[in-house]
């Protein structure tokens, strides 16, 4: 008998468990986003952005790509491209609805606060004043993702990145092609200065055509972690670790000089100060990309996935938040503005402690509710039917 060959997607890989490192890091990133979005929060001086040319947004995007490899590339391997693409479309739809809902609630929160407290500056500072000037046009532009107030530009970025992943899944078995196309697009966008249009204000604050390179880096890292075709990862090496630490150390020095030592900044050579000022976030400057990759290498190479501490009570709140990034992020945006209002009333250490403890606790509660909801709606396996007696043995 002739041997039949089968064409189609590669054989499905066994589905690995969740990576606690990714959940914890995502939870930390979400917590930092809340802190950084709260003006006057003393903890803002201790977040990642103060110690590297990268911040929680870079971590969030890279981890989104990492999770995408497990969720969607894994599904494509098991079921084919079409079901995975359909799952991506459903996720994009959920993100879009969440973004519009968050926009409406955030606008109401800020607008009501501005009217009640007579602080019209809130609307101008958060770029919500077009709602007062052209409400119908502003709403239309918001639905088209061309109007993005401050703090509400991360979900549109995520929507575009997941949209690019739909055709990208077709190349999941060709990692070098994926990396080459991604790098070419990133470099081309930076060189041409191209960006997606934004109503009234030029381009998007986070240019998704540039930030996709960080998403792709996370995707390829996830592919390697689950044993799928990927780029060979750098081995665990003290030399590579030393180089990564040098990159991060230079970032610390650069941030200290540029943010906290203006006198020293003025004494530096003009080319060096111009270089520091030119490390842009919109099109993901190479220094920002390199900083995040250096930090990722250190975590991936020197924090074991099975380390018992990662499942201890000390870090479980961050892991819980990381498992439910969408509700935690949306609630965190609203929470950060409420925290700002409290800190503006009284900025003493007691209020600082209270605001940060209450904010952190509220985010953990949201994550626990999401955990409970997921377990409640998850379909339970049907019980096995009772064995039937053989004929004539009853």
Automatic annotation (TrEMBL):
Coiled coil: none annotated. Keywords: Membrane, Transmembrane, Transmembrane helix. Pfam families: OpgC_C. The keyword Transmembrane helix applies. Signal peptide: none annotated. The chain crosses the membrane at residues 51-74, 95-117, 147-166, 173-189, 209-227, 239-258, 285-303, 324-343, 349-370. InterPro entries: UCP028704_OpgC. The keyword Transmembrane applies. This is OpgC domain-containing protein. It comes from Sediminicoccus rosea.
């Amino acid at each position: 008998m002739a041997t039949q060959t089968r064409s189609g997607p590669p054989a499905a890989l066994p589905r690995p468990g969740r990576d606690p490192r990714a959940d914890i890091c995502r939870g930390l990133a979400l917590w930092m986003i809340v802190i950084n979005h709260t003006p006057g929060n003393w903890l803002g001086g201790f977040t990642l952005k103060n110690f590297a040319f990268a911040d929680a947004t870079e971590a969030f995007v890279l981890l989104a790509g990492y999770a995408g490899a497990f969720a969607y590339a894994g599904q494509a391997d098991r079921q084919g491209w079409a079901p995975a693409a359909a799952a991506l479309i459903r996720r994009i739809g959920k993100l879009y609805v969440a973004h519009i809902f968050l926009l409406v609630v955030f606008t109401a929160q800020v607008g009501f606060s501005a009217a009640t407290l007579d602080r019209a500056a809130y609307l101008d500072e958060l770029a919500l004043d077009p709602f007062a000037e052209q409400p119908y046009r502003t709403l239309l532009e918001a639905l088209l993702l061309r109007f993005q107030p401050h703090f509400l530009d991360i979900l549109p970025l995520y929507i575009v990145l997941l949209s690019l992943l739909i055709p990208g899944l077709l190349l999941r078995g060709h990692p070098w092609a994926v990396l080459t196309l991604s790098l070419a697009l990133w470099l081309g966008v930076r060189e041409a200065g191209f960006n997606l249009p934004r109503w009234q204000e030029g381009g998007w604050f986070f240019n998704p055509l540039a930030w996709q390179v960080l998403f792709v880096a996370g995707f390829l890292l996830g592919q390697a972690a689950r044993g799928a075709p990927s780029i060979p990862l750098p081995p665990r090496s003290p030399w590579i670790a030393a180089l990564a630490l040098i990159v991060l150390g230079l970032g610390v020095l650069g941030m200290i000089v540029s943010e906290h030592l203006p006198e020293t900044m003025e004494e530096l050579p003009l080319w060096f100060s111009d270089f520091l000022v030119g490390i842009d976030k919109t099109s993901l400057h190479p220094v920002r990309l390199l900083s995040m990759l250096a930090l990722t290498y250190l975590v991936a190479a020197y924090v074991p996935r099975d380390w018992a501490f990662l499942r201890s009570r000390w870090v479980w709140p961050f892991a819980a938040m990381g498992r439910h990034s969408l509700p935690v992020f949306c609630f965190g945006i609203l929470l950060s503005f409420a925290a700002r209002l409290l800190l503006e009333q009284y900025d003493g250490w007691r209020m600082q402690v209270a605001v940060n403890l209450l904010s952190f606790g509220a985010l953990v509660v949201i994550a626990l509710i999401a955990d409970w909801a997921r377990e409640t709606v998850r379909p339970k396996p049907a019980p096995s039917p009772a064995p039937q007696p053989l004929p004539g043995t009853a």
